[in-house]
């Protein structure tokens, strides 16, 4: 008997032998000279720092006929059984039995050949032979080993979440006595082949989708043997449901506090901190990914109107889903104010009135007005939309604008600037005189035009041809 180890083998390796669990010898090989029935038993060997080998059964029989069989037989092997008789004697006809039924009977050939043996084959065979004119028989047990175990299909990770990178493994063990056996693997989903036979024992898909769910099984092929695993139900679980963006309150007017919520239902398979949220307006990011599922706008303005959406991402596998867009219109409380001066031209000493005009859009909105000259406030906020200068002076010239706000001051709007250029008294008198002269010249021109026009018309009438006769 020889104790063989898989390479590499250390140079200082030592071996020990055991029979029926008792130490009997050392050295890589163990030789029995002149075997006796007492040598029958289970033999094992062990190398330094290695596990003990599987037991090998040796039977030494005191008889005229023995049925010899290989120690290790694997499914798919071609097996030869030899009906061997005692040396020095002649043996007659040999008959082989399987399950006590004759399986071959052809004379002096002492060997039975079994091709491509399988696990379903009977493990007990018997042969009979005539020695010294006596029919003698012998039985042998054939321990048929699996060339490879029935495969088991496994999935990683487990459980599987949508967006995961999934690996399906077809796991089997090759007999340690046939480590050189080459295996081929195939994978199926719901009886449909998804990966043909090949050397890889793995099948996978990136970024798992819900439609990847199903019943999977694998097959292993080796030496004309095909074994199939049990089916494994692989369920792709949603880490979170489709997101939806919700606005609170339902309608928005400028000045309101707006809260947008990115609503989704989280799976129990992921942690509380597993999801992150981001918000967008008209496709532009307004709040980056974070653990907060709300976006808030304090004192909303009309510029905050737009199409809003949100995204949810699973931080572990980066699965991201976007909500549908929600259009939000921020309603105005009042229009942008316009500043107006009455009259349009004001001379020094005359009254000047500035008006801050706006249109109230939402009823019952109370407003306050303030006026500014050259950026300096000249009238504090109050309910009057007018600023009055009773007697204007040249120094009242400048750039004016007004502001309008609500009572709560959370909405404020500013008008454009109005340039006011006041004229002095002398400059105003000259301008008035010029106006009078121009008006007089215009009036004289009109009279002359009318006079000459009438005279021209009369000149066109026909001349009289004599005195007219009196009428009776």
Automatic annotation (TrEMBL):
Recorded GO molecular functions are: transmembrane signaling receptor activity
Q: Which residues cross the membrane?
A: 433-454
Please give an example of a GO cellular component term from this record: external side of plasma membrane
Q: Which domain of life is it from?
A: Eukaryota
Membrane keyword on record: yes
GO annotation (BP), single: immune response
Listed A to Z, the keywords are: Disulfide bond, Membrane, Signal, Transmembrane, Transmembrane helix
The Ig-like domain is annotated at 1-59, 151-233, 239-320, 337-419
* Family matches, as Pfam families: Ig_2
Transmembrane helix among keywords: yes
InterPro entries in UniProt: Ig-like_dom, Ig-like_dom_sf, Ig-like_fold, Ig_Fc_receptor, Ig_sub, Ig_sub2
Descriptive protein name: Ig-like domain-containing protein
| Organism whose genome encodes this protein | Aquarana catesbeiana
Lineage, uppermost ranks:
Eukaryota, Metazoa, Chordata, Craniata, Vertebrata
């Amino acid at each position: 008997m020889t104790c063989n180890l898989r390479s590499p083998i250390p140079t200082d390796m030592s071996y020990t032998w055991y029979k029926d669990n008792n130490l009997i010898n050392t050295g890589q090989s163990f030789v029995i000279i002149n075997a006796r029935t007492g040598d029958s038993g289970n033999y094992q060997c062990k190398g330094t720092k290695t596990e003990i080998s599987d037991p090998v059964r040796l039977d030494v029989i005191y008889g005229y006929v023995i049925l010899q069989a290989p120690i290790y037989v694997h499914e798919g092997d071609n097996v030869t059984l030899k009906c061997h008789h005692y040396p020095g004697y002649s043996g007659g006809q040999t008959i082989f039995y399987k399950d006590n039924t004759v399986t071959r009977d052809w004379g002096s050939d002492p060997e039975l050949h079994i091709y491509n043996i399988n696990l379903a084959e009977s493990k007990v065979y018997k042969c009979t032979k005539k020695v010294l004119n006596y029919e003698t028989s012998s039985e042998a047990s054939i321990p048929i080993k699996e060339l490879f175990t029935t495969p088991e299909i496994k999935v990683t990770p487990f459980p599987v979440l949508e967006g995961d990178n999934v690996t399906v493994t077809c796991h089997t063990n090759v007999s340690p006595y046939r480590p050189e056996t080459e295996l081929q693997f195939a994978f199926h989903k719901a009886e449909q082949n998804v990966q043909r036979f090949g050397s890889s024992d793995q099948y996978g898909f990136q970024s798992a989708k819900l439609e990847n769910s199903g019943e999977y099984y694998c097959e292993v092929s080796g030496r004309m043997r095909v074994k199939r695993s049990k089916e494994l139900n692989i369920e792709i679980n949603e880490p979170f449901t489709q997101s939806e963006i919700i606005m609170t309150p339902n309608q928005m007017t400028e000045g309101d506090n707006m809260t947008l919520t990115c609503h989704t239902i989280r799976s129990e398979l992921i942690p509380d901190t597993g999801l992150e949220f981001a918000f967008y307006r008209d496709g532009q990011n307004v709040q980056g990914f974070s653990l907060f599922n709300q976006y808030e706008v304090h004192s909303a303005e009309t510029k905050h109107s737009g199409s809003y959406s949100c995204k949810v991402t699973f931080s572990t596998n980066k699965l991201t889903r976007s909500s549908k867009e929600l259009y939000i219109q921020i309603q105005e409380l009042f229009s942008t104010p316009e500043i107006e001066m009455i009259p349009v031209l004001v001379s020094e000493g005359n009254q000047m009135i500035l008006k801050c005009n706006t249109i109230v859009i939402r009823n019952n909105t109370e407003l306050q007005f303030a006026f500014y000259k050259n950026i300096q406030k000249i009238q504090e906020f109050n309910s009057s939309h007018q600023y009055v200068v009773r007697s204007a002076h040249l120094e009242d010239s400048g750039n004016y604008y007004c502001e309008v706000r609500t009572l709560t001051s959370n909405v404020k709007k500013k008008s454009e600037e109005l340039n006011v250029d006041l004229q002095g008294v002398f400059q105003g008198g000259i301008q008035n005189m010029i106006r009078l002269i121009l008006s007089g010249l215009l009036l004289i021109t009109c009279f002359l035009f009318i006079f000459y026009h009438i005279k021209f018309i009369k000149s066109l009438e026909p001349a009289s041809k004599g005195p007219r006769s009196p009428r009776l």
